[in-house]
Design goal:
Exodeoxyribonuclease 7 small subunit, about 80 residues, about 75% helix, mainly alpha, Exonuc_VII_S
Length: about 80
């Protein structure tokens, strides 16, 4: 995948946090029971799209973490000291 393709794909997809907030609002609207059937179906369809995008984003993040952790498998992880206040 070239960088140009990755950039255009990223620009088309909303940020993970934005998608999550929109998905939460869709759930609230669907749970209200006040939507006509066609609107409810449209909301449900959008919710499924957002959920799939979110799942893909989380899978990509998990892969990045695995790559970072496997980069130097012999290197021990250091413990962080507790926050001094």
């Amino acid at each position: 995948m070239s960088k140009a393709n990755h950039t255009s794909e990223t620009e088309q997809m909303p940020a993970f946090e934005t998608s999550l907030k929109e998905l939460e609002q869709i759930v609230i609207r669907l749970e209200s029971g006040d939507l006509p059937l066609e609107d409810a179906l449209n909301e449900f369809e959008r919710g499924i799209q957002l959920a799939r995008q979110g799942q893909k984003t989380l899978q990509q993040a998990e892969q990045r973490v695995q790559i970072l952790l496997n980069h130097d498998a012999q290197s021990p992880l250091d413990e962080f000291p507790p926050n001094a206040e």
